[in-house]
Amino acid sequence: MLYNIRQRSKGKMKIELAELMEDRAAAAANPKLAAYIFAGRSFTTATWLVATGSLAAGMGIACLMGVNNLKEFSGKMREYAQAVLPFLRRTDATSDARFDPDTVEFLREVAADLKREREEGPWRETGGHAIIGQGLRNTLWGKDKEPQR
After folding, report:
1. For residues 115-137, b (16+ Cβ closer than 10 Å) or e, as one string?
2. pLDDT(109) > 80
3. In whole angstroms, what is the distance from residue 60 CA to residue 77 CA?
4. Does the predicted model carry a pTM greater than 0.90?
């Protein structure tokens, strides 16, 4: 038997897949396949354990909260989260009013520029833009200096 196992591990004797799956000695003859089978079984077991544990934890919490369906559970968890973590809030349609108006205006301009680039293609610098841009660079960084990048 040891001779057969050595020959099979060297690849000199072929083993049928059904034999590998059923016979432990045959599976041991091919260590690579045995490792794959072990890993597959381990992942399957771990998946079942995590799924069962998560389901049990969810059902236990739902039972303690006294809810019967997912809608009630979601409502009670939202109330609990708002009570415990008040700094987490949902945004609404007027949430832009809380931001600095200049920042909101800048972001809207950026969005409009991106939309224009998608429709018209990339932006091209005209002669007027180049003159204004060069003047701005000279004002900010001096005539001989380039901006640091």
Report:
1. eeeeeeeeeeeeeeeeeeeeeee
2. yes
3. 14
4. no
